[in-house]
Amino acid sequence: MSTEFTFKVLATDGKARRGEITMPRGTIRTPAFMPVGTGGTVKTMYMDQVRDLGADIILGNTYHLMLRPGAERVAKLGGLHEFARWPHPILTDSGGFQVMSLSKLRKINEQGVTFRSHIDGAPYEMSPERSIEIQGLLDSDIQMQLDECTALPAKEPEIERAMELSLRWAERCKTAFGDQPGKAMFGIVQGGDNPRLRERSAQSLSGLGLKGYAVGGLAVGEPQEVMLDMLDITCPELPTDKPRYLMGVGTPDDIVKSVARGIDMFDCVMPTRAGRHGLAYTRRGKVNLRNARHADDHRPLDDESDCPAARDYSRAYLHHLVRSQEALGAMLLTWNNLSYYQSLMQGLRNAIEQGRFAEHVAEISEGWARGDISAL
Question: Active-site positions?
Answer without folding.
Answer: 93, 267
